[in-house]
């Protein structure tokens, strides 16, 4: 990030916090796949504060698209922050400034620990500390937050967008076809297409609920502090079926069952608590839910194939996870 952008962010923070002077004590950059995030610790009139300066990368999308993306994220955060202001369940980070020409935005840090870190630490076998009851309550709170978010961003009813989902999945399956060891060939892609069309015919006459979609509603983007839930990273916010965010949370926990480090019964309970907090428990075998789940199984396979497997025990778990994803898909396309 440029010094000029950091200076502008410092001035905007000073104004937002209504302080006479703001001094940077620490600036650390976090490089993410689609953005660069600067974590900046400030001293504002003797009070320590932390802000995040996020700049969207223009690689592959261009400067104009990067600027539009960050502007949408800022507007989304502003709207949600006002909606959740004073809400007992939690909220989102406070947006402080938008730098559209730099494809960057500034937000205030929200306190809390990532729910994924809490689950990853305390849902393991023979680990004591935070009780399973507390973890279950956190997951229920995450479900309640999602319900409130979707109610606020609801867009009405429409036909399930099977075409868009198919385009997303096929593009990634074709990328796997190019990898000899992926286990995916053109015939698999053909049978997957037939499977998706068959499942879609089961729900073709039913209207879907269209809502705001976080697009990465995962425990690693959910912060817990004193029982309150804050959700971060709205960089890919759009609108689509209510099932996507619901399924993404379920899927992230489902993946943990592959590892022998975790108790399956504990993960089952956390998934059930999440659905209970949301207010309903969709059947994972429901045609629409299963179609959406296919997207996440395929995306996980592509990610592992591109990034490569870890070494030692981590590599064994990665290979086991990849095979689990492949088997899940294969079981559904076998009769297509």
Average pLDDT, rounded to a whole number, is 94
Instruction: Kindly state the percentage of residues in helix.
Output: 40-55%
Query: What is the count of β-strands?
Result: 12
Uncertain regions: pLDDT < 50 for 5+ in a row? none
Instruction: Please identify which CATH superfamily of the largest domain we are dealing with.
Output: Aminoglycoside phosphotransferase (APH), C-terminal lobe
Question: Which structural category do the helix and sheet elements fall into?
Answer: alpha+beta
**CATH level 1 name of the largest domain:** Alpha Beta
The backbone outline, from C-alpha atoms, is: globular
How many structural units, i.e. domains? 2
Q: Main beta sheet, described?
A: 5 strands, antiparallel
Instruction: Output the CATH topology of the largest domain.
Output: Aminoglycoside 3'-phosphotransferase, Chain: A, domain 2
Query: What's the helix-strand series?
Result: HEEEHEEEEHHEHHEEEEHHHH
Summary tags:
5-stranded antiparallel beta sheet; Aminoglycoside 3'-phosphotransferase, Chain: A, domain 2; 10 helices; single chain; 20% strand; 336 residues; alpha+beta
